[in-house]
Queue: 4 jobs
Job 1
Amino acid sequence: MAYTDILYRVEDGVAVITLNRPDKLNAWRGEMDRDVRSAMHAAADDPAVKLIVLTGAGKGFCAGADMGMLQNIQSAGANRPQGARTSSTREPWDAKANPNFQKEYSWFPAVPKPIIAGINGACAGLGLVLSLYADVRFASETAKFTTAFSKRGLVAEHGVSWLLPRLIGFANAADLLYSSRVISAAEAKAVGLVSRVIPAAAFEAEVMAYAKSLASEVSPRSLREMKRELWNAQLQPLGEAIEAANTDMPASFASEDFKEGVAHFVEKRAPKFTGR
């Protein structure tokens, strides 16, 4: 498929989706929403893809909603971006997903492959929200972060009031939401917003090295099941999470990847996982 606002490639089991409006710091608009959804479908459907990296071209990851889109909302008196997904829309992969992961921007957790956000630069507003729905976040040392909403007269949109406190604690979340102040990659790492800060010159190479290590060294089935378990567990008491995992265990013991996991360890060779 031809894309307008992104670049898409598959490299050694890793699908790379690059937001590609560098002159606008990859500001989000309807075309980008459409393209990212399409690329996520392509990655989810491709058996050669084990996981997904979402990143940005140029100096920005995603600077938030395109200002033209916000101006259109203001002039039209609308309460949602034109062309955005309604909460009643369902993606093919999320028919069995928790309903909480079937909303307008909360669908990343329902994608059946891990998503790594490679935050190469400015990450603001809606761009920050999208990164929070990824499973892992790595930041370039030059990246900057801001919630931005309070300086636009907006609210804690699209579930960020649920996501941020779970990642960085209530007080830190309140600070970033109330103030909309800009924080560095170093501060983002210190509060737990990102897992790793990487020198800018080595950023793409290190993100891809990590992604490729997952694609080649661990079970795709385990990644798929663990992602589902991790996100569902955010909505479960401990006992329910334990019972859900216990229910999943027999199928894992019967899987080809479990057999291969034991065999490659005993035989001291590289694994050949099938994802089955």
Note: DSSP finds ten helices and ten strands in the chain.
Job 2
Amino acid sequence: MTPDPDKLNALVGRVVGDFGAIATAPLVLLGDRLGLYRAMADGRPVTADDLADRTGLRRRYAQEWLNAQAAAGYVDYDATTQSYSLSAEAATVFTDESSPAHLAGGFEVLASMYFDLDKVERAFRNGTGMGWHEHHPCLFRGTERFFRAGYNADLAPNWIPALEGVADRLRAGGSVADVGCGHGASTIVMARAFPNATFVGYDYHAPSVDVARERARDAGVADRVRFEVAGAKDFPGRGFDLIAFFDCLHDMGDPVGAGRHVRQALNEGGTWMIVEPFAQDDVAGNLNPVGRIYYAASTMVCTPCSLAQETGLGLGAQAGERRLCAVAEEAGCTHWRRATETPFNLVFEARH
């Protein structure tokens, strides 16, 4: 094939842009870990000397980091005063963990993909999978931080009220299971919003359960929240009013089997809430910036995770509503509804 010169130049331009984004990612992690963004969060202009004084770091490193951030467009640079400032918008993205626009945790997820590249390459070559527990720990931290922002913004005020009758039931009491709870962010958000209900989070990854227990104690909800090590097909307990799967159904090897277990664990009239990454049913509909992120994460994390388990259905992070609904129907659910959505998530209601 002979490349078209104009198309080649355009593609090279896009790849160079990607080089810059990839090269900037570890600098974002440095800024997050070293408190550089937080030191600039008041919006006042700083020089490299100022930033070094505020953080206790060496000036030369602060200078180069600031220049890189300015080149990325994350920090504003004033050539007249040779000073740098963080806009209110950038401060929200990089420092405000209470905001749904906070994205710093996502960079830890990206870092894990590079740490685990050799393992995923082996999985590609030999056709096996790679379990969630086999990933670098920064994946577990980053996943919680990335999704926690959305849970804080939408879970209690929007998602649960969109489920038929669930919010009223939880206000009056009720019992909730959070399956695949990870570090417990979603469980704790729900517990704070519904103080009369009781909650249990299940995850097969014991180190994550240990972190979740600590987070519940720190949040002051440990009297109503407990965390246990258990899988989606064998978690104990019956009579739950709500069983929630947050961004994890597509990671499971046997999501149908998990759905059947959910049916047995719900009480009469109970609801299965399934929160999944936003996706259209066809590939073409997902060829956009959000789909690009999710397909990459699905290749490196989600699909290998599913293929490492029994059945290994491999739904992937961009499964789409049609395939997810088929899983619920095969599990025996007779009611399915898209309750609400965000640019990053689809929220479904299933019952039997």
Note: The mean pLDDT is 97.
Job 3
Amino acid sequence: MISWDEAAARLRGGFVPAPDKPEETVEATLRALWFAAAGQARPVSRAQPPLPPLDADQGATFKALIDRRLAGEPLAYLVGLQEFMGLEFIAAAGALIPRRETELLGAAVLSALAEVQQQTPQPRLLDLCTGCGNLAVMLAHYAPGATVVATDLEQAALDIAALNVRHHHFGERIRLLQGNLFGALAPLGAEARFELISCNPPYLSSRHAAHMPPEVGAAEPVAAFDGGPFGLSIVLRLLKEAPAHLAPGGWLCFEIGAGQQALVESRIKQQSGYTDMHRAYDSQGVVRAYRLCWQP
């Protein structure tokens, strides 16, 4: 059986840290794989000592998991779990793995939700491009009186979102719909309006999305990253189409890519009705998410 020191040396020999997953250090990755091999899988952020003992078969599994990680399989897919905003989510191929950077959007959504709940104890909430359902589940968790609709273009993503809805016992409060952005809402009728709309859209340019590192581009769904020629096709549609589905005083929250602030804010200013703009900044001082109030 491979020892901890041998495993650490092996992983370090081929380990390339992912800048968008800062929690996945060598040591944290090894702990997460160790727990998975022991049959006690947990997200990397919760894989803390003490470690359980491994028998010979589990030791072989541990070594195989290290090899798969070195071959480029994402850690969250190997472990099957990822943490987001303090909640645990099932992670599997077919849906984007929740990123730490998206917690900026999560915090913006919760701030908007607090505003909504002051006025509406049973709000209607919509999460577009839901992926694995992390924002939709977060909304249902922090707003017990809310009903939530979550949509995605890809059925594979909705299948994983359904697993997370059941994992958190929200089957009666979260409705999953397939379709292209607001087109997914057709079953609800043309008058469907919401007090809050959240969206983590694809925002990389098509050229960038096609040349991502193998761990991302070959493992996670490219549709979750590709935002068109300049990366803003979905974001600009979102800004244009959201007012038809927002209740007066409702909030729109969304994520953008680094360097997209100027164009996004230009479009916001061109479209009357958006007020009370709040920006969320990353650790480098770059705007990465917005929350906007809609006042027609």
Note: The CA atoms of residues 203 and 257 lie 6 Å apart.
Job 4
Amino acid sequence: MTHALEVQMRHRPALDPGFLPAVLWNRAYHARVRATGGSVELGIALVRQDGTTFTHKTRILPPTAAHSELNRKYVERLVKLLLWQKGGCTILIKGCDPVARMLAAAYTEKGLRSFDRDLVGRRMFGQFIEVKAVRGKLPPAHETSQPLGRHLDGCRIGFDLGGSDRKCAAVVDGKVVFSDEVVWNPYFEKDPFYHFQGINDTLRRAAAHLPRIDGIGGSAAGVYVNNEPRVGSLYRGIAEPDFDRHIRGIFHALRSWWGGVPFDVVNDGEVTALAGSMSMKANAVLGYSMGTSVAAGYVTRDGNITSWLNELAFVPIDYRDDAPADEWSGDIGCGVQYFSQQAVNRLLPAAGIEVPAEMPIAERLVQVQKLMAQGDPRARKIYETIGTCYGYAIAHYADFYDIENMLVLGRVTSGEGGEVILAGARQVLKDEFPALADKIRLRTPDEKDKRHGQAIAAASLPVASGARATGDRKALHKGRRSLRERR
């Protein structure tokens, strides 16, 4: 059980004192491993169908009954992190067959990680997750990285699709001439055309401020391959047959509608990281957006993006046994419950702030922001709590990412509350992890970029070509006809 390890922490979140930082629990576990004879080296490999392979090595306590619970917790949480950070559909385990059997049971149809088995395995990579014990050598790591965006020539549209709003920016030679934000509620919408109409409305708003369109770039929550969404929280309400028929090709249809101009869409986390890299003129960036959910992306030291998932909303950062559960995956202690609008909503009762039961979560955040602006100490406690948890989470992420720069943005960080969050995180790093405090530059963009930074960076994604859209009926007729055929 977790109480079998002594975990000491210098800061406790004001409204969530039971919080047990993953980074401190892991360090206590590693200390136990070093102090215990007979520890075992464990090798882990995540493999995709295309041969992409990620490897990780660690050590665990001797696989005896006395250590089984600690080993189970450590390895299961570690693999969960690696799965949502890197992605794969086959998990290979070398060094401990009991651990392989434990994981295999977790990733069955009715196992503890059945959600991950289906969403990461089947939906993202084409097969249910399978766990195998390996007696010989693990396959070598095989990863790829590539440049992303940074093209700002010409007239461009950038857009960002969140769970509570759609943002857009019209950009001319790198300068923003218009930006806009529209509230929408896509999560449980059953009609695929709702998404098409909403996105197209956003594009029209930006296009009205441009003489022509040389390229359109977008970011959105979810996993995207070749401009096709494979899975995403935005589309939870769409039945799978409708998703496959209409949503997977939605951005191809939009490109046709807009005359075939260069059109690129990627995960919003990657654009967050790109925005950070561009604004800071630096690499080794972990971009982190606190919005309806959590979006993250990573830019390497070489300025490239990787083929990693970076879906940190699902990565556990709280190891207590009764941590709050994610309403989508059902798992406990995951980042979305600590660094999003859902986190603010979860902390309202502890802060003593009452809101109408029918008030949407996005409006509850607005209410907290208003209270914060008025100097309400209850609202400040919410942001202080998020900041403390975030400081420990950053240290946890730093065990798996090479980070020198962090850009933190998203609706939750708007206003004075964002500064409170960063101040709390910096204090935790300074007191608990001084080496990281010296290494990692933690910052947030200015207020305008907080709300529209991702849409602006998204505009830089496509490489402009001769294909241009002017918005007139003749130029877009072919695209409209294509859409009718798809429907």
Note: Residues 118 and 128 are 6 Å apart (CA to CA).
